[in-house]
Amino acid sequence: ETVAPEAYTLGDATGPLDPDALRRLDAWWRAANYLAVGQIYLKDNPLLREPLQAEHVKPRLLGHFGTVPGLNLVYAHANRLIRDRGLSAVFVAGPGHGGPGPNACGWIEGTYSELYSHIPRDAEGMQAFFHQFSYPGGVPSHAAPETPGSFHEGGELGYSLLHAFGAALDNPDLTVFCVVGDGEAETGPLAGSWHANKFVNPARDGAVVPVLALNEYKIANPTLLARIPQEELETLLRGYGYEPHVVAGSDPAQVHQDMAAAMEACLDGIAEIQRVARAAGGDAGPEDGRRRWPMIVMRTPKGWTCPPVVDGQQVEGTFRAHQVPLPAARTDGTHRAVLEQWLRSYRPEELFDEDGAPVAELLEQNPEGDARMSANPVANGGLLLRDLRLPDWRDFGVEVGTPGSTDHEATRVLGRWLAEVTRLNPTSFLTFAPDELASNRLQDILDVTGRSWQAEIGEFDERLDRQGRVVEVLSEHMCQGLLEGYLLTGRHGLFTCYEAFIHIVDSMFNQHAKWLQASAEVDWRRPIASFNYLLSSHVWRQDHNGFTHQDPGFLDVVLNKKPEIVRVYLPPDANTLLSTYDHCLRSRHYVNVVVAGKQPQADWLGVQDAALHCARGAGIWEWAGHGDETGSDPDVVLACAGEIPTLETLAAAALLRERLPDLRVRVVNVVDLMRLLPESEHPHGLPDSEFDTLFTADKPVIFAFHGYPWLVHRLTYRRTNHAQLHVRGYKENGTTTTPFDMVMLNDLDRYHLVVDVIDRVPALRSRAAGLRQEMVDTRLRARTWTREHGVDLPEVAEWTWPGATGQA
Amino acid sequence: ETVAPEAYTLGDATGPLDPDALRRLDAWWRAANYLAVGQIYLKDNPLLREPLQAEHVKPRLLGHFGTVPGLNLVYAHANRLIRDRGLSAVFVAGPGHGGPGPNACGWIEGTYSELYSHIPRDAEGMQAFFHQFSYPGGVPSHAAPETPGSFHEGGELGYSLLHAFGAALDNPDLTVFCVVGDGEAETGPLAGSWHANKFVNPARDGAVVPVLALNEYKIANPTLLARIPQEELETLLRGYGYEPHVVAGSDPAQVHQDMAAAMEACLDGIAEIQRVARAAGGDAGPEDGRRRWPMIVMRTPKGWTCPPVVDGQQVEGTFRAHQVPLPAARTDGTHRAVLEQWLRSYRPEELFDEDGAPVAELLEQNPEGDARMSANPVANGGLLLRDLRLPDWRDFGVEVGTPGSTDHEATRVLGRWLAEVTRLNPTSFLTFAPDELASNRLQDILDVTGRSWQAEIGEFDERLDRQGRVVEVLSEHMCQGLLEGYLLTGRHGLFTCYEAFIHIVDSMFNQHAKWLQASAEVDWRRPIASFNYLLSSHVWRQDHNGFTHQDPGFLDVVLNKKPEIVRVYLPPDANTLLSTYDHCLRSRHYVNVVVAGKQPQADWLGVQDAALHCARGAGIWEWAGHGDETGSDPDVVLACAGEIPTLETLAAAALLRERLPDLRVRVVNVVDLMRLLPESEHPHGLPDSEFDTLFTADKPVIFAFHGYPWLVHRLTYRRTNHAQLHVRGYKENGTTTTPFDMVMLNDLDRYHLVVDVIDRVPALRSRAAGLRQEMVDTRLRARTWTREHGVDLPEVAEWTWPGATGQA
Ligand SMILES: Cc1ncc(C[n+]2csc(CCOP(=O)(O)OP(=O)(O)O)c2C)c(N)n1
Ligand SMILES: Cc1ncc(C[n+]2csc(CCOP(=O)(O)OP(=O)(O)O)c2C)c(N)n1
Ligand SMILES: [Mg+2]
Ligand SMILES: [Mg+2]
């Protein structure tokens, strides 16, 4: 048995909407629902002007209807308020799988046709609009970059609130309507992100209206939040700091009235919070009796208005409505007949005129121009993006005389520059950190601003600031998601994190990179600012923490994404870090990953040299090598990438110069990892001829690498000299121990590098047996020393570069 | 100014503890605190029998004191109840960085000395115990595998509750005391995991006592939960379904009394919940008026009992107590003097006897034998592990006549076997899924059990079951963490997930793999059951969803971990999947990643062949190739790994046989990806000679791979024939489209494979120009067909293997 929806009649219900407004609003909602069902099912006969035939139905029915009526309901009601109150608003569809909903709304609003001229707002356009959905060569099933007004695809669930809150920061006049799936709400990231309200300053930031779409189901299960007592749910949301307004039911008229009332209550609540806060000035806090942020709990049936029963099973109001309620509509006559009744139950003849355009009554309800959520430039952030004002990084560089004669904490030096960046861009640049800003030595930013904090402030709390430009919360997910939301809506920022724990957001990174890639192919989308990571407290210096904190593998994840999108930098010292970051903050539409040290470490390059070296991305350090000036080929290339590998490589080079003065040693440092890739595979890739010149075509190359060694092989396996490339890096040997013990555990230490040279340079081998043995013995001595003294061998700990060629 | 703690005197306070019990308990706590401070600072003079000198202090002070007093307080009070009530209990330190705490407790309990005979429970042992902590060659700073009683390292924050709840499942007599850091509570995974209580059946499972360690600070910031109103915090916890008992203060006597009372209330509450549920039988639910699960909120100062002020800054009760309160204790006389006063404030002379052993009064408070949390075998799960009863997978295999003549959904076939596994192991095997069990086609498990669900049950909810053996919750973090906890405590299970979204738990996987690696090196730890992933809904078949759901990169993450720990399998059909999974469920101490298809797909191998092929891991499919029977070398090798690449490869092989009958084509299928690695790098690695025999030393190899193509290069770059290896795989081209369009987008399709063969086999090239052009044209025709018809070209969609050599 398969049952069609009853002929739809809108009942009476009282509330803020007068009968006419109620009827009109309901019509808009019905139109959006009709257009959503049409997208899922129809390739032809869009207005049902003829009886529905099998060939009108798509051969593959792909999409998700269950969540759509809820999305459309919120959208329609938001529109009413946008018009009434002159709001600037955007829409976030947490259940982004309900793509047909936002698509439909954008089509009614006309944005769709403005952006895609082959999809006009008429019968022909509707036909194309339906046909293209989830169709090869058409548009994706989700709220993808192709969807007007979307800046949140919602494919991987959990990040809707973060994107919404990120958008609201520094956007005082913005309202973000954010629908959160009740299934989505089970994810960790979403569960944590309710607390993002503690970072919203109502004087400075816009507002988020979270709407928990409590349709009670996911794909195949009920949701937890639907199956705890209603009172417990509301308690939970209050505990998160919200005042929930509940809209529950399945009678459209009543739900419309309740939703209208709830929306008004929310907007009133927000207006009041903002009014009080703005009157008090940006420094006011919750101590001034701030009200809870309002939100909505929308308990309506999943697949609302779809066939209640299909093949004898309840569908409407259950998980079975998640995807395609009538899966056999093309092949099964009953399903098709019910589909037709279902479509007709929305009364399309009342909704679309002769030409297939929405009737005037619908059009009148659309907000105008950019006020349409599908057209708000905030959702196409590149349109609003302005360059940052960047102070000259050279003014913040450190003096370097003889390379290696001074020490600096690289990230600390960067922090001074970032402080100035923060100061110069007081409303468009934010720094995010999971309680690691100071730990990663960026604390100088706190000289010019505090940490944003809208909760209470305790006596001993430090540098908390209602207007702070640093967001610290112990959630890598929140840091990542808020920054994504902030960037997607046209601003700039960075995320600093411990290197190992950035894996926590691998999947969010993946999704953001995919968004960047896909949106670059959508003509009307404009490039946004790059997502900038600053990873520190890296694998080699986990003296306090040990094995759990050692994982340089984020680079491997990043390099799986499209080369056009990703960049990886491993600056070896303070000035190269500055130069790199200056470049990152100017770039667009990339993900830039920068790994840098925070411990005092030798400065190798002065400002000018750093600029040159970073521009090259990979280059010879003549002063560190030996014999290149003779004009003959080197005997061996010591390559390095990363702070610690560079240090060990230079120490090895110094040893070799002293002990094997005839050996011609070239030192190559790589800052821009993408240089290793073939030119054909990455825009930064070195041409083969250049690569061969740098690394030679046939000499052994000992490559000391910051991360997992096989990553370098993966990047270089097509290079001429790959067979001679020997890489050292982290191979999952670690614990709480000294810095030098760590490099020894992974055979990356200077002594082992010398051994590697001896083993690979044919002319050395047994000739250098004595030195080789000494190196092996020194390793043992170094290890024993740590066991006895708890610190590294003084000759290692106090080692400094002996001076450039020709010097001392 | 640096201020030492005041001379410690225990005040009066009333409560459940009589004065003597209070004094004794406090002494135990002081002893644990003393031993923790000693670990952080001292390498000598452990009992302070002489005045503290610089050389007694470690040169590097590494560790985290701030959280320790809280951990020790909970531990001491738990011990009281373990003795009083005869509990079997384990301890989870969410802030695992407080490793000195659990270490100290284990030493007082004697477990430390039993497991490490070089660390006896006397002065000499104490000296060694202090010395080794965070010391090169010693033990890590966290609650690592080396720590007796730990099964949760707590290095990466967020998973404490999940491990605790996972341990409690199917352990009806177990109590898990789980300390959650208030910083940790900000993480997404932790925020979501409070809801794990909805999966605890009090009749079947044990209980978790969450203790929120509200010391108000993280590394450098206050915590959110400490800076919302107390009432809001309690509201939040009630919303999560708990009844919070608050213990707050800084006067030890009063806190002890309050903690004792709170602990009793919790244990009483749990006992009552369990009594009622057990009386009602395992099927009772919350509808029978179940009480909320009790928990504790412990608001005590961070670094409690440490120097209040250091160098003029408040330390006790602030974030500055997080690591080492007196950082200069070795070099600065004042710091050292204050350190000595601090240590003496615990009155060690009362706590340890002449020999340095804990005094009798302390020893009497230790639970006995396995009742000590540091000795409970539950925390060393391998001790308790029993083999699964496994039905013969061959009985569940599908009949295969001519290869490719029948179709099955591989995971569905597996599901039938898993159903039987579930039935045969009713208390030691669980399946976890993020709402994807049925979507991944494992729903036949639901024929023998339901989904565990302890919340309300709605009219249309399906297969929910108070005693269900499947845990479904829309949180990959919860699935991962609960299963980890379940495995770490000696049981078995699997986690099925969409391939792309398994990246959500990359970091949890990393941590679990590290735990496995490190624990394998701890002699007294026993191997546990492997962590088994079943990834489906993979990159090639995201017909409904598109780009956001396409990411096969988890394999890249997994292969960064130690080869001894990780295994990756890509079974191409139903029987090979069965055979693989049988192997996985028998294995120990690995992480097994299996990627399999869920769509109807050709069966290639019968049960016997599947068993042989899986044992080989990689092998020639003679029936699919052509010319190998002649005894001469092939002209080309078509290699494949994974469901869809295998299909496309066989289709290419069939085309080649038909169109280029003279070409000798060898088809090699790889199930066990580790076979590609050199023998020296992985226990499954093929010896070079075998690899060369299989893949030839000099013929072109066209490798169709399931994942990112460079992964195969990374595994094989040292092989003889690597220069001739040409890999096709996913390269981030995707959208919502047809299955064949997807493979075409990534050049993995049969036609492109034929082109690759023509381009790489020297004898073909221009000879085969006609066929090449036809292939290119067919691709275009196939693409155009999808645009017109929305489905794949019939000759592709309906393609079947034309029959083995010599057949048909
Ligand atoms: C992180 C993640 N895990 C799993 C999925 C697969 N998935 C797609 S939709 C869905 C159910 C979503 O339920 P809900 O959030 O309630 O949305 P709605 O009911 O509104 O469709 C799931 C599990 C996903 N998209 N993302
Ligand atoms: C996921 C993760 N992010 C960041 C860190 C770095 N970190 C170590 S301890 C800590 C603060 C922990 O605070 P809390 O949980 O309150 O522990 P406690 O105050 O008891 O030490 C942080 C941020 C981490 N260990 N894990
Ligand atoms: Mg839902
Ligand atoms: Mg804390």
Mean pLDDT of chain A: 96
**Global morphology of chain A:** elongated
Low-confidence stretches of chain A: none
**What's the helical proportion of residues of chain A?**
25-40%
Bound molecules: thiamine diphosphate, magnesium ion
Q: Characterize the largest beta sheet of chain A: strand count, sense, and whether it forms a barrel.
A: 6 strands, parallel
Number of helices of chain A: 25
Largest interface: A-B, 129 and 129 residues
Can you describe this structure?
Two copies of one chain form a homodimer. The model of chain A has no long low-confidence stretch (mean pLDDT 96). In chain A, strands 12-9-13-14-16-15 form a six-stranded parallel β-sheet, sandwiched between helices. In chain A, strands 1-2-3-5-4 form a five-stranded parallel β-sheet. A five-stranded mixed β-sheet of chain A has the order 18-20-19-21-22, sandwiched between helices. Helix content of chain A is 36%, strand content 13%. With 808 residues, chain A is α/β, with parallel strands linked by helices. In chain A, strand 15 (566-569), helix 17 (574-586) and strand 16 form a beta-alpha-beta unit. Chain A contains 25 helices and 22 strands. The first copy, chain A, is elongated, with a radius of gyration of 31 Å. Chains A and B meet through helix 7, helix 8, helix 14, helix 15 and helix 21 of A and helix 7, helix 8, helix 14, helix 15 and helix 21 of B. One magnesium ion is lined by residues 181-183, 215, 217-218, 223, 302 of chain B.
